[in-house]
């Protein structure tokens, strides 16, 4: 057995309470969890019924994000009975079990994967599990995050651990400079398109390479966030100086001598030079073009200059049937230019792409322009802090002047659990993470892309190549 | 909470062989607003099972006489991808589904099934395709699954063996309460925690 270890090995080894068998199962200690109102209620009820307590309440942070409205005037009350019940039960659970809650009127409220890094709740070297699949986001900070279901939330609350099976390791090396107008969203969408929606199932991904090094911490979060759309149960990057600079002075980050000690230790968080990965994939970022999805799975994506593919060209019978079904749902004909697809809605939001840098990108595209007359365009900031910062920087005014709705924070139309729902047949350019059937509303059609691409589509009213956007009258 | 043990189950197997059936399709958003686990059988595959007027869609497999009341589903690759919502598994269970047989499952969904006593059987793709064709014929829909023996028995008596980790198998056979089992190791967890927090004091 070699002593060289991957970053994933180091995280799992340092959090293993004990091995449970010789088939890879361990009892894994979890440092932090983030709790929301919709996947946690039955976990707390389970604890209550079994008369169990919470192992270490200070390691959990709760926030309301999935069901709340995003209307510009924020009020505490939920408009629907179900959402109201979930929010009040979360408050009751947090009170009874001693867990800190950022409720809807808290200035720190926002989408869990935006606020947890923002508050310094997530630190390099941590293992985090939470009842939301996009918990992989935290990999951008050199932490290992993964999504779990409600039964596992209950297990984690009760024991601070999970019964965990070790994954295989996949290294994705991304090298080269991104062309102007391209973002980390295009990198991860291209990767998913290449390896498929289950291309990383059973793996933890470590991203590396010059492209990743050059990205900001927020841009890296977009990549780790969406890695789950390739099936990865965790995706991360070795923490570097950018990560330490990002975290320093965050409210919950360690301070003073403790900070120095932590950073010293975090510098060792990288794969050993001769560590072996179970699989390797490399991607040339310099050859990428802006990506958009045309189907109902995140891997059904193409460069914006391409045409809607023809199922006839696909030899695999299952893939061909899936493509037919997807194009039928999407109301698209094979051979149509993607840039001819006319939209009715534009949505910038979600834990994938609603951080301050995303809003700056989008604002630079729409500054001084107007949303197309037939398009309803919305901005839902990733957190209340992002919203406040965007207002302070003048971004909100740019959006409002261009005809965007400037809304409050929440998950919103990414999954449409609140009242931000599309109608059947609506077609949305969206900075979110899933283009599943019915995701943004029954019968609604989603095209995933970067925030800058959504902004351009909102202005022209159709899917638009951001690289040529300025050329248009 | 102890689970219904899974030993040997016989019933119909309904085919649903499209790839990437996600948890939004399995349990749409309008059924996620509860604080308990009940009533989710209604929401299962809602947009596929029901027409816009609320009537059952006769084209959907679970509405067809040959597969109505199925105990198993034979599913396409990457079944259960997407959202972590365990409501998808609760819905399947409430519809009477005891096991899913497929070529690959999404990770979170896999764990959610295990924690609810729903057996997931993974077969290689060619075998799964052949199996899917068999149960797609009404006369081939009846199967039985023996977890102890790790065998699926087809209508004509053919036996298909399958693999499963011992740990998962034992938990399913006995219907074990996972939390109770883990908490028997409380002292070990406490000892680990003391040492972990001492080595990483900023985690305290």
Automatic annotation (TrEMBL), chain A:
InterPro entries per the UniProt record, alphabetical: 3-IsopropMal_deHydase_lsu (IPR004430), Acnase/IPM_dHydase_lsu_aba_1/3 (IPR015931), Acoase/IPM_deHydtase_lsu_aba (IPR001030), Aconitase_4Fe-4S_BS (IPR018136), Aconitase_4Fe-4S_dom (IPR036008), IPM_dehydratase_rel_enz (IPR050067), IPMI_cat (IPR033941)
Domain Aconitase/3-isopropylmalate dehydratase large subunit alpha/beta/alpha: 12-461
Cell cycle among keywords: no
Entry's cofactor comment: Binds 1 [4Fe-4S] cluster per subunit.
Entry binding sites for [4Fe-4S] cluster: 351, 411, 414
Catalytic activity: (2R,3S)-3-isopropylmalate = (2S)-2-isopropylmalate
PROSITE patterns: ACONITASE_1, ACONITASE_2
EC numbers on record: 4.2.1.33
Pathway: Amino-acid biosynthesis; L-leucine biosynthesis; L-leucine from 3-methyl-2-oxobutanoate: step 2/4
SUPFAM superfamilies recorded: Aconitase iron-sulfur domain
Record-linked NCBIfam families: leuC, PRK05478.1, PRK12466.1
HAMAP family named in the record: LeuC_type1
Listed name of the protein: 3-isopropylmalate dehydratase large subunit
Species, as recorded: Pseudomonas migulae
Gene name as annotated: leuC
TrEMBL record, chain B:
Domain Aconitase A/isopropylmalate dehydratase small subunit swivel: 4-125
Subunit structure: Heterodimer of LeuC and LeuD.
Pfam families membership: Aconitase_C (PF00694)
EC code(s) of this entry: 4.2.1.33
Family: Belongs to the LeuD family. LeuD type 1 subfamily.
GO cellular component: 3-isopropylmalate dehydratase complex
The name this protein goes by in its record: 3-isopropylmalate dehydratase small subunit
GO terms, biological process: L-leucine biosynthetic process
Domain of life, per lineage: Bacteria
Free-text function comment from the UniProt entry: Catalyzes the isomerization between 2-isopropylmalate and 3-isopropylmalate, via the formation of 2-isopropylmaleate.
């Amino acid at each position: 057995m070699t002593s060289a270890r991957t970053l994933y090995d180091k995280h799992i080894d340092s959090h293993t309470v004990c091995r449970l068998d010789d088939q890879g199962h361990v009892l894994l200690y979890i440092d932090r969890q983030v709790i929301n109102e919709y996947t946690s209620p039955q976990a707390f009820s389970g604890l209550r019924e079994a008369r169990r307590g919470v192992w270490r309440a200070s390691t959990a942070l709760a926030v309301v994000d999935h069901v709340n409205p995003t209307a510009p005037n924020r009020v505490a009350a939920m408009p629907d009975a179900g959402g109201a019940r979930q929010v009040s039960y979360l408050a009751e659970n947090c009170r009874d079990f001693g867990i800190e809650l950022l409720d809807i009127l808290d200035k720190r409220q926002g989408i869990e994967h935006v606020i947890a890094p923002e508050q310094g709740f997530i630190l390099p070297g941590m293992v985090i599990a939470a009842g939301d699949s996009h918990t992989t986001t935290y990999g951008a900070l050199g932490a290992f995050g993964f999504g779990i279901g409600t039964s596992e939330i209950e297990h984690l609350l009760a024991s601070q651990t999970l019964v965990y099976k070790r994954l295989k390791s996949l290294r994705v090396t991304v090298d080269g400079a991104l062309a102007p107008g391209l973002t980390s969203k295009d990198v991860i969408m291209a990767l998913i398109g290449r390896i498929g929606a289950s291309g990383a199932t059973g793996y933890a991904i470590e991203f590396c390479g010059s492209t990743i090094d050059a990205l900001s911490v927020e841009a890296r979060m977009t990549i780790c966030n969406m890695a789950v759309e390739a099936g990865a149960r965790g995706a991360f990057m070795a923490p570097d100086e950018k990560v330490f600079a990002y975290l320093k002075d965050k409210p919950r980050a360690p301070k003073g001598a403790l900070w120095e000690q932590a950073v010293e230790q975090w510098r060792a968080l990288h794969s050993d030079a001769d560590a072996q990965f179970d699989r390797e994939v490399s991607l040339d970022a310099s050859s990428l073009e802006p990506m958009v999805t045309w189907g109902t799975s995140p891997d059904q994506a193409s460069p914006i200059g391409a045409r809607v593919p023809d199922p006839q060209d696909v030899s695999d019978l299952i893939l061909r049937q899936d493509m037919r079904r997807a194009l039928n749902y999407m109301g698209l004909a094979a051979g149509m230019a993607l840039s001819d697809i006319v939209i009715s809605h534009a949505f910038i939001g979600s834990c994938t792409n609603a951080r301050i840098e995303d809003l700056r990108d989008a604002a630079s595209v729409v500054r001084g322009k107007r949303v197309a007359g037939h398009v309803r365009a919305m901005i839902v900031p990733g957190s209340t802090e992002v919203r406040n910062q965007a207002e302070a920087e003048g971004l909100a005014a740019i959006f409002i002047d261009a005809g965007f709705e400037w809304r409050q924070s929440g998950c919103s139309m990414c999954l449409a659990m609140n009242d931000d729902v599309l109608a059947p047949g609506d077609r949305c350019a969206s900075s979110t993470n899933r283009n599943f059937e019915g995701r943004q509303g029954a019968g609604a059609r989603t095209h995933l892309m970067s925030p800058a691409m959504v902004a351009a589509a909102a202005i022209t009213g159709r899917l638009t190549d951001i690289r040529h956007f300025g050329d248009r009258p | 909470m102890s689970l219904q043990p899974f030993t040997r189950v016989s019933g119909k197997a309904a085919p649903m062989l499209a790839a990437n059936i996600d948890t939004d399709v399995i349990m749409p958003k309008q059924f996620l607003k509860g604080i308990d686990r009940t009533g989710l059988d209604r929401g299962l595959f809602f947009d596929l099972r029901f027409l816009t007027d609320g009537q059952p869609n006769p084209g959907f497999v679970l509405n067809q006489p040959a597969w109505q009341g199925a105990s198993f589903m034979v599913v396409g690759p990457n079944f259960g991808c997407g959202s972590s919502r365990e409501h998808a598994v609760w819905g399947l269970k409430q519809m009477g589904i005891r096991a899913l047989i497929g070529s690959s499952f999404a990770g979170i969904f896999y764990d959610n099934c295990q924690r609810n006593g729903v057996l997931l059987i993974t077969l290689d793709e060619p075998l799964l395709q052949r199996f899917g064709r068999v149960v797609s014929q009404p006369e081939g829909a009846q199967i039985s699954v023996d977890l102890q023996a790790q065998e699926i028995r087809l209508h004509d008596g053919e036996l298909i063996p399958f693999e499963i980790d011992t740990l998962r198998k034992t938990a399913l056979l006995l219907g074990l309460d996972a939390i109770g089992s883990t908490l028997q190791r409380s002292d070990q967890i406490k000892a680990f925690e003391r040492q972990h927090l001492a080595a990483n004091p900023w985690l305290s």
